[in-house]
Amino acid sequence: MYGWIGQLLRVNLSSGECKTEKLDPVLARDYVGARGMASKILYDEIDPGVDPLAPENKLIFMTGPLTGTMAISGSRFNVVTKSPLTGAIAASSSGGYFGGELKYAGFDGIIFEGRAPEPVYLWIEDGVCELRPAGELWGKNTHETEDAIKAATCPNAKVACIGPAGEKLVRFACIINDKHRAAGRSGVGAVMGSKNLKAIAVRGHGGVKVADGAAFREAVLAALGKIKANDVTHGGLPAYGTAILINVINSHGGLPTRNFQTGVFAGAAKISGEALAENYLVRNKGCLACPIACGRATLVTGGPYAGHGEGPEYEALWAMGADCGIDDLAAVTKANYLANELGYDPITFGATLACAMELYEKGYLPARDTELPLEFGSAAVLVETARKVGYREGIGDLLAEGSYRLAERYGHPELSMSSKKQEYPAYDPRALQGIGLNYATSNRGGCHVRGYTIAAEVLGIPVQVDPLAAEGKAALVKTFQDLTALVDASGMCLFTTFALGAPDVAGMLAPATGVPYTEESGLLAGERIYNLERLFNFAAGLTKADDTLAPRLLTEPLPEGPAKGKTSALVQMLAEYYQVRGWDEEGRVTAATRERLGL
Amino acid sequence: MAKVLVVDQEKCTACRRCELACSFKHTGEFNPAAARLSVAAFLDDDYYLPVVCQHCDEPACQAVCPAGAINRDGRTNAVIINEDRCIGCRMCIMACPFGGTDYSVSEHKVVKCDLCGGEPECVLNCPWGALEYKEPAGQALSKRQEMARKVQAALREVV
């Protein structure tokens, strides 16, 4: 095969057996790779009703046909499983160097089944696989784990692992690779922990072949030209990282503050990308094959929050900053380092802490239940809980369940700012209507990277649309969701879509694989993937009732800023969205749509 | 003066597109292990440096080659391996202090940078100009000027 290696690794952790399987070319063609292929395998192989933390759930790491090639930002892999946070399908994407190395070692992906009787890690070197004991690694953080495994295997190995949070089944634990990259959301790290799988280390000396080298090279160079001519991908993102959005979104009145009580944060400038660049940025960094290089290598010298690492990204800055009413950049940066080292998602953590702070403020969470005063704006509480949550210590044990279960415990689930029990990221749906429809319909719950309408609503990409209008958002959300599914499946990074579109993605996929992908067939593959995820979720018990937003966003108008007085027009947009999707009034994928997509 | 590969460490982002471009040009596959250059990325120290053959004026690889297989390309001034003469003894790998020559596992032969015959693919694919193909003269002046700026700033603080 071309683009794809053509081989999968299946690891039964219960029995310790590792075996290789040929990749089905029809599966590859129809579902492209990464998020698409892994979702199809999960759909075919597990009972959607399974307990996510039971051995019967599977954990699938999958690259795309462009991963490890020179395609623009072709570094990505996806981790797909059933989420312990949402009960829906989880597909978390990560970059770094791990995905490419897996292909150089001879595999498109790995399917983990069962549960190891004792902690183990998987070592793969040029097609040879071995499960090794990881008892001595258990308890170590992600950085210590990577260093120890490299010392035991190969200094040039690439490592993906969980930290204490994954071991302790924190519901939003992530999987960290290359120390600072994360398959971040929906608790994929907890599933890995439930399987007693501490890490995967991989080293390969093989290559990735493409079908038509000359055409592929030409398509890549043309796409590289577009990336370098774009103000976002060759200007804002490299200079300020994703955090450039803090001031931008705040100026739209859409930077959720104090658990979405308002959309304007007075301290925004203090936690902005500009402030980060001025105070703590060492240099920017790219993942494999990425010409954008949005990564932030940062250093905080001196003071109580001294440290060194990467980030924070925009979403983490917001969640642990504005959403908690905190404008201490050093503290947020420190909390971000802790999230990477202990291995959990800083978006859900920050949003859960914000929820706890509101419960505390309103007296629903009594002081006797927490050893720390959970007051909005407290940097000290942020950093202390950021540590405790990774170990499930004290109040950290309650936060480790995520905001929905926390708020439900105290009788006020409406104060969880989440859809399908996954917390929203950093855009208020009352000020940015399209993103609200995306949150409500995202197959993995509250999430911006399923359908990033912010590109059109704020940045004017591909065209500027009115963020406050509901009209036209249904079609916009569908297009973004389908394109994103295609990009995620290809092995490219979503950030390329600030400069590139479906024709560019298909233009690289076709010569790489030899499959004649076009803009139309590529987007159709994206739509197929999206609908397959939807089928999984409905089979798992989700319904139309789960396609909603937190009540606050539907009923409480924003109190200030450019979107003052606005609520989300979800009800109006959702009905139209179902029609555009070809779903019935109950949100079910119709037989006609299934047939059209070959499902 | 002949052009060489000039590396600017501060512009490198560790994306390794140079390795991918190089391996593709020379082997037809994307395989960093077969690239003729490597980004030495000390990620814990935030330091990344592409390391590649310097095409030395007095190449150690050429001096130790018992088969006379390493010569200078008269057109590009690149130090190149004549594959027909190479006996695969790997003495050049031992001799080169830069790791400029390597044994490629996938190709079963000793390989090195040949400047792609005068159109280096790594340069074409570096998004930030961390790798340039140009005459090496004049590199010091900009560094001296940067140094002078730091002296100027320091003096302003104390004077």
> Number of folding domains of chain A?
3
Overall shape of chain B: it is globular
Write the CATH fold name of chain B: Alpha-Beta Plaits
At CATH level 3, the topology of the largest domain in chain A is: Aldehyde Ferredoxin Oxidoreductase,  A, domain 1
Q: Briefly, what CATH class of chain B?
A: Alpha Beta
How would you portray this structure in words?
The complex is a heterodimer of chains A (599) and B (159). By secondary structure, chain A is α+β, with helices and mostly antiparallel strands. Chain A is 40% helix and 14% strand. Chain A folds into three domains: 7-203, Aldehyde Ferredoxin Oxidoreductase,  A, domain 1; 235-422, Aldehyde Ferredoxin Oxidoreductase Protein, subunit A, domain 2 (Orthogonal Bundle), CATH 1.10.569; 429-498 and 518-597, Aldehyde Ferredoxin Oxidoreductase Protein, subunit A, domain 3, CATH 1.10.599.10. A six-stranded mixed sheet of chain A has the order 2-1-6-3-4-5, with helices on both faces. In chain A, strand 1 and strand 2 form a beta hairpin. The two termini of chain A are 24 Å apart. Chain B is α+β, with helices and mostly antiparallel strands. Chain B has one domain: Alpha-Beta Plaits. Helix content of chain B is 29%, strand content 21%. In chain B, the strands form four sheets. Chain B has a two-stranded antiparallel sheet. In chain B, strands 3-4 form a two-stranded antiparallel sheet. Chain B has a two-stranded antiparallel ribbon with strand order 5-6. In chain B, strand 7 and strand 8 form a beta hairpin. Chain B is globular, with a radius of gyration of 18 Å. The termini of chain B are far apart. The A-B interface holds A 68-70, 97, 100, 104, 178-180, 204-210, 213, 217, 221, 224, 227-228, 234, 238, 282-293, 295, 297, 299 and B 10, 13-17, 20-21, 23-24, 27-34, 43-44, 46, 48, 105-106, 124-125, 127-128.
